[in-house]
């Protein structure tokens, strides 16, 4: 413990010297596909920069795909400074900038959609190198299917550079890709964290001690949750202990948004900082408020100014979160209080991360942290170039299992497991380009089929085992195909009908429900009502607050009722066939109507009953779906209404910052 604390300090300035794994990845990537599996902050982006620079120098084209719009926006600005703004374009749905540039930055969904288009035209993707950032998202339960589709559809002539956090089965991923792409895929591992990590524990006495694995057992000797079920160590006490040992700045991972916001009022204490840092924070805040004046009324600004602390979670506006990220990255905050979701895709490391619970809400319930989730959180501890050592502080309480955290400190990473699931968007777009026999071959090239065939052994499967494994996924494809045929979108020869062809343009959630509404002419052509209807169908969060006492306007409820009546039979048939269907949620629709017609964001947030960030994300999600309607051919009235509806809802403070 004393030795670890003695290492606290800023490392000496030294010229940048790439690590051996970075040089090896660059060398191998010149002629083939490479998977780089390395800890957070170890310099994977430098590898991508070198690969892109070489490709651009040779006159080639590159695609850089990331999982998040915010991360894509950040890379667009970063690469623009590095390669020149004329060399870099951006495609995220929200933004289209310099789209003919030789380097395209965008989300993985946009890249997948471009592959759909090239497949349907029988053409080739106009790129020579694809960099997939955060490639471990391949195992994401909800979005991993997009990564897997990209890797299945990408032409073998296009070189691949996959940048991943450390995973246990990178060799298996390389073997799978090598077989499906017809050439060997190299694996480069990054080894140790660039900034060493030490586990600490704050005891109720205020004493901080080292957290270590005892007896080599998972929970050996450590008390679990029950031992601390009544213990609540206040944040002010934690901050005081961190300040005394020079362990700030810190990221507190808390279990809920409400806890994050409430924590700001429980910090206490005095900020120890230089006048220069205080002035720099005030200046940055003033600059942001001048650029985004709608942030001036944010209730947390005074806490940022006076105490150098902030909350960061999905309930806040995108612009506010960007402000907090910039403050933290410049070292102008003492602490941020965040939900664990902030650990993915956001770059603001601290000296210490504080962990108050050993479980995480996965959208349905709470489950124990996995090794990968814990590594993602603690990956923010220790700032490369600013710290010689980083710390993970466990704070005992009713939601913390110390034994689990102690074991996770030394646990190997989890393997990536396929999350592939067949859906109607995939089936429609595959039928637009291939016959079912070719689709069967594509599915056999999936990681899902590979892992099913191996039974998790990590060994290369035989052709027979792969064929058997593919049948499960092809059976699901066939079930979707049969439904489409019964609906008249596919003919008896398994070819798309005219209606099926335009339905392929609906690359969104629940395309058949949208299709049914379009076919019946039931989507409202009033732009505010259209935006509201889309929001009501695509909202995935519900408020537990009572709705406003006033009633929604008839101009909203009547077109919603007509749309629900028109798509109801399709939804019933989908449910009878065992497919998931959406539900019409009135409050999100009403909130979007209010925003589109009145432009009063606070009123829209009140109607929604959630946070300002939720309202912004609902509008951005609705705009993504409206964008699909905008591109529809032979539906000019609906396309025009969708275009105007997007204009009504994509205004500050919703518009995505760049």
What does the model show?
The chain has 658 residues and is α/β, with parallel strands linked by helices. It folds into three domains: 20-189, P-loop containing nucleotide triphosphate hydrolases (Rossmann fold, 3-Layer(aba) Sandwich); 197-408, P-loop containing nucleotide triphosphate hydrolases (Rossmann fold, 3-Layer(aba) Sandwich); 424-649, Sec63 N-terminal domain-like fold (Orthogonal Bundle), CATH 1.10.3380. It is 46% helix and 11% strand. The strands form three sheets. An eight-stranded mixed β-sheet has the order 4-3-5-2-6-7-1-8, with helices on both faces. Strands 10-9-17-14-11-13-12 form a seven-stranded mixed β-sheet, sandwiched between helices. It has a two-stranded antiparallel ribbon with strand order 15-16. Strand 15 and strand 16 form a beta hairpin. The longest helix has 24 residues, at 463-486. The chain is globular. It starts with a helix and ends in a 9-residue tail after the last helix. The model is unreliable at 215-220 (pLDDT under 50).
